[in-house]
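Handout, page 2. Input:
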Amino acid sequence: MNERNEGNAFMAKIRGHYTRAEKGGQPFKAGIILFMQTLTQEALWQALATIPDPEIPVVSLVEMGIVREVTQTPTGEVTVTITPTFSGCPALEVMKTDILTRLKQCGVPDVTVRTVLSPPWTTDWITEAAREKLKSFGLAPPPHHGGDFAILLFDPVPCPYCDSQNTTLKNNWGPTPCRMIFYCNQCQQPFEQFKPL
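Output:
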């Protein structure tokens, strides 16, 4: 199921909550409050998990490790903490808008998106599921580094198409600052790698 279908399925579930909140054909005046009580931490995270990364839509903001924390007050105010892939990320405002839109679609009336730059985002936060999706997309996932970048300088980058390590770096800069361009000498396919950060 792709990100769009996951989002549609989740919104159908949300509409089901509203339907069950009706009495005598009329919604309760406190329907939003009753609904908010059903939005657990798990439900909030599930909603956020349907928001695709603006630059790589095959993975979600949650899978990329960009969404760091979700908190909710007893009265229903929700704060989502995000860390962009780098401080000058051009997609930052798009991500904030997408988060606000999705949670308000779910009936959350008061949403704040907070940006935190410390600790800085790292590719080690990308989930294993997202790494597989990146590879299927033709984008070589970044290796785990644990903060030691020196070990990566001379490591071969496997081709996401044929898994060959006979690859050559062609350009340190791809279509976005967080990607590099490689060429596979085995299957003769150009490909990008998500830079280890």
